[in-house]
Specification:
The complex is a heterodimer of chains A (150) and B (673). Chain A has 150 residues and is α/β, with parallel strands linked by helices. Helix content of chain A is 38%, strand content 14%.
Chain lengths: 150, 673
Amino acid sequence: MASVGPILLVEDNPDHAELTTDAIRQGKTANPCAWVEDAEAGLDYLYCRGAYADRQPGHPALVLLDLRLPGMDGLDMLERVRQDDQFTAVPIVILTTSSQEAEMVRAYSHGANSYVVKPVAFDEFQETVRKLKGYWVLVNRTPGERGAVG
Amino acid sequence: MSLTEAEEPVSPPRRPSLALVAFASAILLLALLGLVGWVSGPVALGSFGTDWQPMAPSTALLLLILGSSLLIRGLAPASRWSRWVLVGASALIAGIGACASFSFSQTGSFWLDRLLIPDPARVDGRLIGHMSPLTAGALTLLGLAILARPSRPGSRWLTHVSGLLATAILAVAVVVCLGYLYATPLLYFRGIVPVALPTGLAFLAASAAAVSLAGPEALPFRGFHGDSVQAMLLRAFVPTAVAAVAVHGVAYRLAYDHIANLNPALLSAMSALVLAAAVALLSTQTARVVGRRLDEAQERRLEALEHLRQAEARYHGALDTLMEGCLIIGPDWRYLYVNPTAAAQGRRTVGELVGHTMEEAFPGIEETGIFAALRTSMVDRVTQRLESGFAFPDGSTVTFDLSIHPIPEGVFALTMDVTERKRSEEAVALLNRELAAQVQELAQANEEMEAFLYSVSHDLAAPLVSVEGMAGMLVRDCGGQLGPEGLRRLERIRVNVERLQGLLNDLLELSRVGRMDTTTTAADLSRVTQEVLELLEGEIAAAGAQVVVAGAPGLPVQANARRLTQVMQNLIGNAVKYGRGASGPRIEVGWADRGDMVEVWVSDHGPGIPPEHQERIFRPFHRLAAAAGTAGTGMGLAIVKKAVEFHGGKVWVESRPGAGTTFRFTLPKAGRT
């Protein structure tokens, strides 16, 4: 399998970030995983600016976005990204502890591709992230991508 | 005959007028007698006396025309042509009468007389067979009288003219008749033809007919008409006076004719005696008639007065005992009537008010709203209704409900002291406002509570994810180094995380009931029960429970499917968990129709719930001591209660320790309007 784009994780809780990156690292395909703690840094990453001016260019294969973030909210960031045409096809999955319906509705209306509630049970958490990676990185196709399967 | 023009603008009499017919017949008869006398010889037919002046043929002809037209009019008062006949005839008579009068003044004779009697005889220098100039004048007036009011009401003054002309003819006729009665036919200047007696009588009848035609409203007989005492007296006395004169005249005439060598003094005395007797007789009769009428009227008046007095006493009695205050106030603001209630409301006695002005009784009252309303009613004559406060000098204020009506004496006011009612209304309004505020506060507190619950359960979820995740990674990555005791303790951490998570989920659920997804549909109880039993299959099997469904299929309830499932799942799950008796749990699920509602129950044969706990088990976090060893959050029944109440139903428990427990709840039946 060819190497694929990085997964961008926007998560303010370091424990959750550790759990998520750990889960992403599991399995046969190892994706590079970039972790940022807030939405501003997430935008910097996407636009290759600030601390990420020197990163390897290209869009992430998947953005895992928490909703409750310090400063700019996850939904605000989602909205900003979706307003930019170059990120139209970047899959953005909301990964949060909130199961509030109003937030789900707003997330989808702002252009989220998926909404996932973080399971508490460890095994379930691992399985959920594995499935996300499997689908959005390995199965899903986006334009301008080097062949995912080759 | 119409009374007034205004009441009946067009009202020709519909039935034949008997008076008119009678008068017309009399005229006709006299005229015919006069004519027959001339034609056949017995001149006395036209004179009623051999040495009296006979009726002239010209007069007889004219009277014939007049009598016929009056007869026709009397017989057919409604017909238009009878009216025109009468108009024509009266115009003709007035015209000929006027011509004759003119002729007499110029030549001393009338052409019609000359035509009919070319060679008249003379007796004592009087022409026999020629019309009297007086007759000519009277005929003119007669024609004009009838012309002035031939039929329907004309103008008022024409009517009066008609009546006055008719009266003038009456006067002429009376003079003529009296002349004959008192044996002085030559009331005229020498050489003038006198009026014949039949002609005078015919004029009497004709004037009566003219008066009758002029109607009751015409002068001068207007006063005779109606029920007034004046009319009554006129109707009694005038005919009496006329009759007395007539009787006297007849008696005088009889004595004059039949007693030879009469002493003139004796004649005078006798006639005076007869006159006195006649007047006495007639006055007595008149007085009797009039007196009776007056007595009757007086009696009726007294009776009416008594009725009035009784009615007034009745009304007074009623007003006096009325719970409402009643006042009658005159235009000078004086109390004319005050009932005891009204006086008590004003903190006065009736005597202190009646006869006094309002200002005297209550200085300064003219500045109040009550007085303003009274004035409006008094001046504008309108009904007023108001509720107004009145401040007494001691500072206390009383609220009155007033209704004020204008009456001829001034104003009539009904007053009610509504201070207490007003006070209680205000108290109730205040309580209601407070209650509404409290309800709103409660609702807000409830909302805040739910929001808090929601937020807390979310915020607690995040560290749970961390704890569980870290523990999971520790077991996975470093499990080997921990040893069995370390692994057991880690496992305890994870079990407790799981319990905490269950608790959070239930809290979330509780906060969601009635807030999220409130749509209801018709749900089939037996299908829902089946689904729940499948969901709980594992637990039921593990507990070795037997579940019997005792409800007939096909009884739909109006419910939110998710909530109904949750309620059934919690209740059946509880029964499975806690319903273990001597053997494995035996559970019965059933439902029954209860009119608008459906009652559902879940029974077990477990240890039951002590009475002191039955009230509290529906509160969140309440767990029985017996349940200490079992898994659970204490939230299930709270969710059940909230969900059932959300649907408008009730939930309750029936349990005796040792005899099992039955939970029952009601839900609205589907299809209920």
